[in-house]
Amino acid sequence: MGKQTLSVDIGGSGIKVMVLDEKGMALTERDRRDTPQSPSPSAVINMVKELAATKEFDRVSVGFPGVVRNGITETAANLTPEWINFDLAAALVETLGKPTRVINDADMQGLGAIAGIGVELVVTLGTGFGSALFINGLLVPNLELGHHPFRKGETYEQQLGRAALEQSGKKQWNERLQKAIANLQHLFNFDTLYLGGGNTKFITIELPPLIKVVPNVAGLLGGIALWKD
Ligand code: BGC
C-alpha cells in the first residue's frame, strides 16, 4: 500500500482531520473537534494529537489560518499571538513523529478544488476570510485579501467574516458578498472563482456560472498536493 497522509485543517471554530491514500482519496471519515477556547499552539497541537491517535498515517499535511512560510506560521488573526513565528511543522514532527508540511488553509483548500486551468481565485468564508490564487494550477502562496480594505473603512474579513455575519445578518452579508465578488472580478479577471468554507451555506445571491461553490471537504482533500514534488 502507498503512503497515507493525515490531512489536518486548523480553523477558527473547528479542527478537522481525515486520512488520504496516495491518490488523495479519503480513507477515513472526516473527524472534527471544536477549536480550543484559547487556541494557543500547545492547545491546538494537543487536539491534533488526540485526533491523530486513532489513525494510521505516514505523513502529515496541515492547512493553517494564517501566513505560512517554510512550516513557520507568521500570522494568525483568529488564533493567539503565540503563533507569530512558530515552527508548526517542527512541532508536529516532534509530536506525531512523521514528516509534516504546513501551508495556508485557503491555499490547501484551493489545491483540493481547482481545475488547474487559467486564473483561478479561491475565497473561503468561515471564521476568517481566506483567499488563494492559482495560475494554470501554480499557487501564488499566502494571498491575504482578507485583511485588505474593502469598503466603509473595513477589510474583507471585517465585512464578511463570521463575526460580521452574526452581527449584520444574512441579508446584509449576502449584499456585501455580491459587492466583494464584483470587486475581485475587476481586480483579478479570474476565469473561475471558487467559494469554500462553512458559511457558503448561507449564500442566497445568484452566482454567475464562472463561480463555483466547493464542498467543505476540499479543505482536507487538498492535503495530498503538498507531497507532489
Ligand atoms: C487569515 C488567512 C486565512 C483566513 C481563513 C484570515 O484571517 O489571515 O491567512 O486563510 O483567515 O482562515
Along the chain, the helix and strand elements come as EEEHEEEEHEHEEEEEHHEEH
Summarize the main sheet.
Answer: 5 strands, mixed
Helix/strand class: alpha/beta
Strand line-up across the major sheet: 3-2-1-4-8
Helix segment tally? 6
Morphology? globular
Provide the low-confidence segments as ranges: none
Query: CATH homologous superfamily of the largest domain, by name?
Result: ATPase, nucleotide binding domain
Helix content: 25-40%
Strand content: 25-35%
Q: Any idea of the CATH topology of the largest domain?
A: Nucleotidyltransferase, domain 5
CATH domain class name of the largest domain? Alpha Beta
- How far is it from the N-terminal to the C-terminal residue, by CA? 19 Å
Small ligands present: beta-D-glucopyranose
Explain what this protein looks like in three dimensions.
By secondary structure, the chain is an alpha/beta fold. The protein has helices at 41-52, 88-96, 105-111, 156-160, 162-188, 218-221; strands spanning 5-10, 14-20, 31-34, 59-64, 68-69, 72-73, 86-87, 100-104, 119-125, 129-135, 138-140, 149-151, 154-155, 192-196, 211-213. It folds into two domains: 5-108 and 219-227, ATPase, nucleotide binding domain (Nucleotidyltransferase, domain 5, 2-Layer Sandwich); 116-213, Nucleotidyltransferase, domain 5 (2-Layer Sandwich). It is built from six helices and 15 strands. The strands form four sheets. A five-stranded mixed sheet has the order 3-2-1-4-8. The protein has a five-stranded mixed sheet with strand order 11-10-9-14-15. A three-stranded antiparallel sheet has the order 5-6-7. Strand 1 (5-10) and strand 2 form a beta hairpin. It is globular and about 45 Å long. The chain binds beta-D-glucopyranose. Beta-D-glucopyranose binds next to helix 3 and strand 10. The site of beta-D-glucopyranose (BGC) has 18 residues, from helix 3 and strand 10.
